[in-house]
Amino acid sequence: MHGPWTKQILEIIAQNPHTAASKLAPLQGSETRPFKADIRKLQKLGLTVSYEVEYALTQLGKACHVL
């Protein structure tokens, strides 16, 4: 679960909170569906929170993103 994609997604969400996955995915060079799947993995770890159409980091995610 740890790797370059993890830090990259946390950074993208940190810089663009409350933004839809369809707008975040291109920032990673990804399509929306795989990007959302990766966010769900991070959500299961308690690193992100998902709203109706957007995402934000949890306190834990904010701490991990600066590592």
Give a verbal description of the structure.
The protein has one domain (4-65): Winged helix-like DNA-binding domain superfamily/Winged helix DNA-binding domain (Arc Repressor Mutant, subunit A, Orthogonal Bundle), CATH 1.10.10. It has a two-stranded antiparallel ribbon with strand order 1-2. The chain has helices spanning 4-15, 21-28, 32-44, 59-65, and strands at residues 48-50, 55-57. The chain is mainly alpha-helical.
Helix content: 55-70%
Beta-strand fraction estimate? 5-15%
Determine the CATH topology.
Arc Repressor Mutant, subunit A
Shape: globular
Tally of separate helices? 4
Question: Structural class, please?
Answer: mainly alpha
Question: Strand order of the main beta sheet, please?
Answer: 1-2
Task: Produce a short descriptive summary.
The chain has 67 residues and is mainly alpha-helical.
Give me the secondary-structure topology.
Blueprint: H1 4-15, H2 21-28, H3 32-44, E1 48-50, E2 55-57, H4 59-65
Antiparallel strand pairs: 1-2
Helix pairs in contact: 1-4, 2-3
Features of the shown structure:
4 helices, 60% helix, 9% strand, Arc Repressor Mutant, subunit A, single chain, mainly alpha, two-stranded antiparallel sheet, 67 residues
